Amino acid sequence: MGFSRADKFEIVELIKDTLRKSLSDKVFIRDLVSALSEHITASIKEAKTTLNMESTIQEEIVHAYMVWYMVEDKDENIDESFKKLCVQKLRLDSTEISIDRIYRLGKKDNKKARDVIVKFTSFTVKANVLSTKKLLKGSGITISEDLTKIRYNFFKLARKKFGFRNV
Known about the structure:
Layout: H1 5-24, H2 26-60, E1 64-68, H3 78-88, E2 99-104, E3 116-120, H4 123-132, E4 142-145, H5 149-162
Antiparallel strand pairs: 1-3, 1-4, 2-3
């Protein structure tokens, strides 16, 4: 059961009249502006906090990479497995590879290999891996920057907009 045309017209006129009265009421406008201002200020403060946290997290992972699809052996030493990958596939000297931390993410699953986070001791080591990662083409293994969720979402948007090869 809907409204008749006359009922709809009457409702619209009542809304218009109420808005006119409200917008001419200075106290109402002052309260409305005050409430909106408080809401906007709180939203800005929350956004700044989120960005500060995100920046801090990114600083922590600045020397880190995510390694995707690296085969996981039952009794592996992940440190040795990654160094072996760097020497055999990336043609890096084993003495160049200095790792601060390395670990697999998530719970062990026999169906697929867990991703690996590698944090290097210096930017130079990270740059060497970055410059040679193209040698992994065809191996099924991928190495990418370890990004925070916000930065990863920006990366995905940029890749979608500008193309895979341009980002």
